[in-house]
Amino acid sequence: MKKRCLQTLLQMRLLVGYLGEKAQCAWWPTAFYEASSRLFLEPVFSKTSRLAQYHGVMEAARRLHDEHLSVGSFHLFRLPEEAEQDLHAIVHGSRGEDLSSQVPSSKEAALDALKRMAAPVSISSVGPTAVGSLKDIDSPDTLKAIAAAYLSAFTQNTKIYPYLVG
Predict the structure, then answer these.
(1) pLDDT for 127-155, tens place per residue?
(2) Strand partners, 154
(3) pTM (2 decimals)?
(4) CA distances in angstroms from 91 to 23, 88, 102, listed in the order given
(5) Angle of helix 3-20 versus helix 49-68 axis, rounded to 10
(6) Res. 43 pLDDT band, cuts 50 70 90
(7) Is the separation of the CB atoms in 123 and 152 below 8 Å?
(8) pLDDT for res 99
(9) β-pairing, 127-133 with 160-165?
(10) In angstroms, rounded to a whole number, what is the distance separating the alpha carbons of residues 47 and 26?
(11) Which of 26, 28, 34, 146 has the highest CB neighbour count under 10 A?
């Protein structure tokens, strides 16, 4: 998978992960990106507290999506093994630490960043929504469709679970 695509997926995971937390849109009941979580995580994960935040949010998001999608579905938080391994390598490298530290400080900033990634369309569906084909995961159009689906849901106060058709 292309490096630029992986970085876009990682940035989108961070934004959607942040927006899905209970202090923003409350899709999952976590608060890993709250200031207080660092106080809790740093004594346990002194050198990797940002990675612990990332993995905590990703697991919460993955579980929620998996509950609403068919077994074997691929989505932003569950990609093919090769893509997951590539993302894992980025997150555990210095680039991942840089990206993790760029989590927005406000809901508005996160929505603005997601808007810049999204296709200029409004998606009115709710629940599971096919946004493209798995073979086109590294296509800019597919990535923009995923971002547009989440942006639409967060701004309309609904829940959508964009997935890729295998």
Answers:
(1) 999 999 999 999 999 999 999 999 999 99
(2) none
(3) 0.92
(4) 24, 5, 13
(5) 80
(6) confident
(7) yes
(8) 61
(9) parallel
(10) 28
(11) 146
